[in-house]
Amino acid sequence: MVAQGASTAGGSRTPNPPVVPAFHWQHMSVLVVEDHSAYRLLLGWMLQKLGLGHELATDGFMGLEAFTCRSFDLVICDCQMPLMDGYRMASAIRQHERVHGLRRVPIIALTANLQNDSPRRCRKAGMDAWLLKPLTLEQLHAVLVRWLPGSDVAQEGRKTAASASWPTREALVTTFGSNAIVDQLLESLLVEAWEDYRVLLHACSTLNASLAAERLHRLVGSLVFLGGTDLESTAMQLIEQVQSGDVASHAVQLERFQARLRIYLEYLSTI
User: How far, CA to CA in Å, does 179 sit from each of 115, 125, 127, 187, 265?
Assistant: First the structure.
């Protein structure tokens, strides 16, 4: 759920796979709440390109008013906004859903810095996932595939988690001693892992083999720390492959690893 950094153009670059929106998206609508006009325009353009209806709001108050007046399938909101920030708006939306018996609409936080807008704070406010600025169409598409209703990806993620025996909160509390310690460990791990994930995406898009290997190595440390997944062994294999300097020929394996890693990190953010 993070944005890919800027990439350089070149004849040898492997093209990104086409972004193909699901057919049923044309009947869906997304609420965007963002005080920065450039980002509002960018997100509006991206959603239009993906065939999604959308409404733009400039602050949390306007966003909450829009949410209570009509139906949306997903909300994207900036964390830091004047008048009413994204956290207060998300909490108010969850309260509105509970009071009126409405379905839970996914809320995606938009932030430039997960150190300031911590995963734990976002989760406590009722947000489901995060997008890091700067934002690309590919990363927005990936998050929408994961969270829009009717997607099979979320179900697949839950099946993967169950089959892989990923760590549960109960198991982590047993290992580390308390909920408070687990919260601190998860917050620190997720902040670093999401940043390493973002840099890995950039390294792959720019065919930077040394940077890709470096971030894969850092991610191995994060993955081994909690255990319960085979992602670390996959990362070790990828390190050996990209150290030869040939990122492009292993693009498919790297993309699969990145997709699985994103699902795992999103899972950790929910426990």
Answer: 20, 18, 20, 12, 18
